[in-house]
Amino acid sequence: MSVVLSLSGVSRAYPLPRRRLLGPRPMLQALSDASLTLSAGETLGIVGESGSGKSTLARLVMGFDRPDAGRITVLGQDINALPAPELRRLRAGFQMVFQDPFGSLDPRRPVGWSIAEPLLADPALDAPTRRKRVAEALEQVGLRPADGAKFPHQFSGGQRQRVAIARGIVTRPRLLVADEPVSALDVSMQGQILNLLSDLQAQMGLAMLFISHDLALVAHQCDRVAVMHRGRIVESGPVAQVFSHPRESYTRSLLARPETKSADNRELVNNTP
Ligand SMILES: Nc1ncnc2c1ncn2[C@@H]1O[C@H](COP(=O)(O)OP(=O)(O)OP(=O)(O)O)[C@@H](O)[C@H]1O
Ligand SMILES: [Mg+2]
Questions:
Q1: Which pTM was predicted?
Q2: Is the pLDDT of residue 65 over 70?
Q3: Which of the listed residues 55, 98, 227, 232 should we mutate to test ligand 1's pocket, taking the one with most ligand atoms within 8 A of CB?
């Protein structure tokens, strides 16, 4: 299987506010020495409590942020060594879906515009081709091409996440990074969106980085899992192995915690405004 993503020794620290006016600037090590690989067609789950560095990892993989150390290779290219125009071209190959679909959709424009936006990076695609690709992407996520003319607020939460996924796949990427893609949805919607992601993955041979604090979802969705704790990957391996025979005490404690289990997440999710 071809390797789509690899991280080797990746670290990122953020400066925190000074405690005293002229004191040293404290640093927060959000990610420490992270290494992983992900192949075509495979789903790697990233789990860990809030603040463990999951979204930091996702932002670095997407090239939205740069590591202080280490190397990130996407589709064989070191994304932090690529000149901007080449990174823009490579961008079609890796896309992201966020927890909040509003984040990637422009509230003032029909969603078809937002779905088409990633295609603008490829000057070879003319307007009719872009329209065709948007219509295809809408159908792939179970919506109608005509839905492209609607505005984000005209969709339900689940439909809006479908639109965000259409934007994520419209360039026909090889890697999809999904950061808590269903945690803002109610449980009945979660299953539909997860099935959609699995179907798309099978059809497109997508490699997926699936970030979630819900271990049951990860067990269902992923082939392998990496457990993060305070910015470090403390354990990784096939999902069944890590969850049924965790080697690390931290993984065992995570498995025992109520907030990482679906039943409790449901309440949490439903209480989210
Ligand atoms: N731009 C930033 N500046 C300063 N600190 C940051 C920044 N981004 C993240 N952090 C800190 O880095 C740590 C890791 O954050 P991150 O968002 O990666 O966690 P997470 O695992 O995604 O958490 P959650 O499950 O809550 O989404 C946190 O302590 C966070 O406060
Ligand atoms: Mg996060």
A1: 0.91
A2: yes
A3: 55
